[in-house]
Amino acid sequence: MSARTRIARSEDLRPISLVLAxxxxxxxxxxxxxxxxxxxxxxxxxxxxxxxxxTFRHGSVYTTDGYDxxxxxxxxxxxxATLGGRLGMALRWYLALGxxxxxxxxxxxxxxxAHPPLPHWYLAVLGTDPRxxxxxxxxxxLAPILERCDADRxxxxxxxxxxxxxxxxxxxxxxxxxxxxxxxxxxxxxMQRDPVPDKAAMAAAx
Length: 206
Prior knowledge:
By secondary structure, this protein is of the alpha+beta class. Helix content is about 45%, strand content about 20%. It is built from eight helices and seven strands; from the N terminus they run βαααββααβαβαββα. It has a seven-stranded mixed beta sheet with strand order 1-2-3-4-5-7-6.
């Protein structure tokens, strides 16, 4: 794991939401959620703050000291949100999305129901500041949980909202399961990574 990668703390919420808003400015799914420039300027950082806040309770949000990007992971057995937390998120969801909140929620619900049935680590969001892309930031942010997946023999799962990002994830051991198309919207590519065997342990056992 890169020395600059660390688990995020509560005080990192605001800079993480801002870097994710920059990272996803041209993302097809997130621009489907917030389609106009006015929507994006008013609500994008609040939207990512809402998503990040929901994953912070798992202790598996990673960033760097310079906030070059962030990875939001959900563990195989996530701690359920409190009633207050669920109500707060619902309110923030409707404040950010207005009348489109219900239809967007239906489509995202389809994606959620398509998750693999077996326990897995779910990469909810991975984003890198556009000014830092191509410098290994994304790989560094993935590394801690992928190493844990291999150690614990647990799969990892994600949805790539850009087809051009599929090869990046394939280099980290993910494979495409299928493509899901939103109604009147973009596609996502469902990808799963099986744990990589410890070659040293296999050699010792053999």
